Each structure stands twice: as C-alpha cells, then as structure tokens.
Amino acid sequence: LLAAVVPWRSILMASAAVRRAAELAADRSAAHAVGDFRPVVAGLVLLHGTAEERRRLHRGDLAGLVEDARAEEVPAKRWGTWLTSAIEARPLPPLRLRIAELAAWAESAEGRRQLVSFAEERGQSWRSWL
Question: Which residues make Cβ contacts (< 8 Å) with residue 94, sequence separation at least 6?
C-alpha cells in the first residue's frame, strides 16, 4: 500500500539530481582548494575515466582530454546530457560533462576570481605539491 502512495521514482530522480549538482559543486570546490582545475580533472579521470582516458592522462594528454570534453559537451548539447541523466536517474553526471563544466567555470569570471584568490592567499600553486 505504501508503494502505491509514495512516488518512489520521483524521489529517486530528485535525489539523483541533487547529488549530480552537488558533485559539480564539489568539483569547483576542489579546484578552488588547489588553485587550478587541471589536477581535479586528472583526479576525475583516474577515478571515473575509461582505460583509454587513463592512458591518455598518463601520457600527459590532459589538455586533449579537456578539449575533447568541451567539444563533445558544447553548451547547447549539455541540456540533453542533463536530461538523459535525469530521466535515467544517474547518481553522477557523466565524466565528460563534469570536465566540460569545470573547464567552463575555470574560464568564467567567477572561476578566475576564485582561483586567483587562492593563489594570492597561499602564494603557491598545485604544482609545488608534487
């Protein structure tokens, strides 16, 4: 009886949408914490990438991975990706969308401001941690 009353599918879709949005916010927070979006992209590829994407990363093709993600996820197409994720109630946004969104944020005025503020506060870059 409870299953007939509670809209479980709607609840699942809403919670998955909140999680996808939270993942993108966490990506931006991580980029702010290290002062650059590239190490975050590298980490995302290591965690969620295909074997081919990880091989490209290990060969040093991070810029190519970002470029490909941005080419595949042009702003007009991103809505389709979001819609597909919503309909299928995926808990995480697709990797290429996360990379494209993070790169676009880093290039935006807000992203540049946050990334520059970190560098000024810390006086270092993420490369110094390596």
Answer: 81, 85
- Confidence (pTM): 0.76
Task: Pull the structure tokens for residue 117.
Answer: 């503020």
Distance CA 13, CA 67 (A): 30
* Residues 111/105, Cβ–Cβ less than 8 Å: yes
In angstroms, rounded to a whole number, what is the distance separating the alpha carbons of residues 104 and 94? 15
The closest of 61, 10, 17 to 38, measured between CA atoms, is 61
pLDDT tens per residue across span 69-80: 999 887 777 777
Separation of alpha carbons 113 and 130, rounded Å: 24
Task: Judge contact between 21 and 79, C-beta under 8 A.
Answer: no
For residue 91, give the DSSP letter. Answer: S
Q: What's the pLDDT tens digit per position in 26-40?
A: 999 999 988 899 999
Report in angstroms the alpha-carbon separations of 106 from 3, 16, 35, 55. 44, 25, 10, 24
Structure tokens at 49: 């990438």
Cβ 91 vs Cβ 19: under 8 Å:
yes
